[in-house]
Specification:
mainly beta
Length: about 450
């Protein structure tokens, strides 16, 4: 999980000379008692441990943090747990794990915890059950560097916001900042439907950036509902640098939007599963999508539209999409099965974004080095050997540029350079003989050449 919440700024500004540090459990045995005893700009610093309680900020402008604040070690996030498990607390404790419902602003900060086992409760005049993990009702807190997991928003009719609920009765009163959190395995469900397994927002103006929103879901009697990862209605949203993966819903498994204004910049949507639309489903929303990967979602459309049309540019959309700079190609994530959405060094997304930036959230995280395997004959870096490699390699030779797609220097900085990708005959060089032998292999129906494990090849 990324640790990018301007940690140095928080450490420098949140504990000033006039502020008090309240330590839990040494000063007070519970987190709530520490909050209740705090004053403006105080810090409530919680030691590693498992705290069975529900938290209400009660309008306090304070920093509630684990020891993550002191050293940036995510160990503290994983091991400082606020748990609303009703098996321990009893059914009377149904409700969100953390509540911001008293007009809190950005100086009300929740940072560095695992938030788990909340069961959403009635939040507003519409009697919505929502916010299993965190409820943010007509408030504008900062929620950063937390793990929000295994929470449920449930109602006999419709459940809203398994991980986080944002909203109110009036537009733009809720203006939370939600950044650098892992939001995982939360559920919004109801007798009829659920909306926003990870995050639900309505009548809000939110900044959501740098989060990983993964394996959340919605369901109900009339199907899996909408927005497995996120569901927003009548919301102004700045949404950037987020990974939205493997969420489940009926409509818009990654994101469902209805009315509002959305800036979707530099995100990655992949592996989300919807009955109809796997990526983003939008209706009557002023949406601008740029530098974003929407690939490998399904079944059905990557982007589904009811009314209106989003402006999409410099993005990688599976199946293609009209718009300046858009591409349609496998982004080649390093290891998506294990939640690694970094890009291979040959990814088509590198440098393809607006202004030559990379499309998606992450940059190069894997690729060929002297310690990795190579597909012999893979001249163009596609991880396979086919006729395109023959054509491109011959073209290089014909123009007097006999360079393979990748030259390995072993040991590094030694000056000993070895042609790898098109060195089919294991001669540690690339020439016409390699092209000829490669062509013969294709003609014989043997296009799968063995990987070359070493650079230089063993014995050379």
């Amino acid at each position: 999980m990324k640790q990018g919440l301007l940690l140095s700024i928080i450490m420098a500004t949140s504990v000033s000379a006039s502020a008090t540090v309240i330590n839990i459990p040494s000063d007070y045995p519970t987190i709530q008692e520490g909050i209740d005893a705090s004053n403006y700009r105080d810090t409530v610093l919680v030691a590693n441990g498992h705290y069975y309680e529900r938290i209400n900020f009660n309008g306090k402008r304070v920093l509630l943090t684990s020891e993550f604040m002191t050293d940036g070690d995510i160990f503290h996030i994983q091991n400082t747990i606020i748990d609303a498990d009703t098996m321990v607390l009893g059914s009377a404790w149904y409700g969100s794990v953390v509540c911001f419902i008293s007009g809190e602003d950005s100086t009300s900060i929740l940072q560095g915890f695992t938030i788990q086992n909340g069961i959403g409760t009635k939040l507003d005049i519409y009697y919505k059950r929502g916010g299993g993990g965190i409820c943010c009702l007509e408030s504008s807190p900062t929620i950063s560097n937390n793990i929000i997991r295994d929470n449920v928003a449930y109602d006999l009719l419709v459940g809203f916001g398994g991980g986080i609920y944002i909203g109110g009765a009036h537009l733009n009163i809720s203006r939370p900042i939600i950044e650098n959190n892992l939001i995982v395995n939360n559920e919004a469900s109801g007798g009829d439907a659920g909306f926003g397994g990870g995050i639900y927002g309505t009548y809000a103006n939110a900044v959501i950036t740098g989060n990983t929103i993964i394996e959340n879901e919605t369901w109900g009697r009339f199907g899996p509902g909408g927005g497995g990862g996120l569901h927003f209605s009548q919301t102004s949203l700045d949404f950037s640098g987020n990974i939205i993966a493997r969420n489940i819903a009926r409509w818009g498994a990654g994101m469902y939007t209805y009315y509002g204004t959305m800036q979707i910049d530099g995100n990655t949507f992949t592996g989300n599963i919807g009955n109809s639309v796997g990526g983003i489903y939008t209706a009557e929303t002023d949406m601008n999508i740029v530098n974003t990967i929407i690939w490998g979602n399904g079944p059905g459309e990557e982007i589904g539209i009811q009314v209106g049309s989003p402006n999409v540019s410099y993005s990688n959309i599976e199946g293609g999409w009209l718009g300046e700079g858009n591409i349609d190609c496998n982004p080649r994530f390093c290891n998506p099965e294990n939640n690694d959405y970094n890009l291979h060094f040959s990814s088509c997304c590198l440098g393809a974004g607006d202004g030559g930036t990379t499309i998606g959230v992450l940059g190069i995280g894997c690729g060929r080095s002297c310690d990795e395997f190579y597909v012999v004959g893979d001249f163009n870096g596609s991880w396979e050997f086919n006729v395109v490699d023959i054509v491109e390699s011959f073209s290089k030779l014909a123009t007097g540029s006999p360079l393979s797609a990748y030259i390995c220097e072993c040991p590094p900085e030694s000056g000993n350079k070895w042609a790898v990708a098109m060195d089919v005959n294991n001669s540690c060089a690339f020439n016409i003989a390699d092209v000829y032998i490669a062509y013969q292999r294709l003609a014989l129906g043997e296009p799968e050449l063995e990987p070359c494990e070493h650079c230089p090849p063993a014995g050379r």
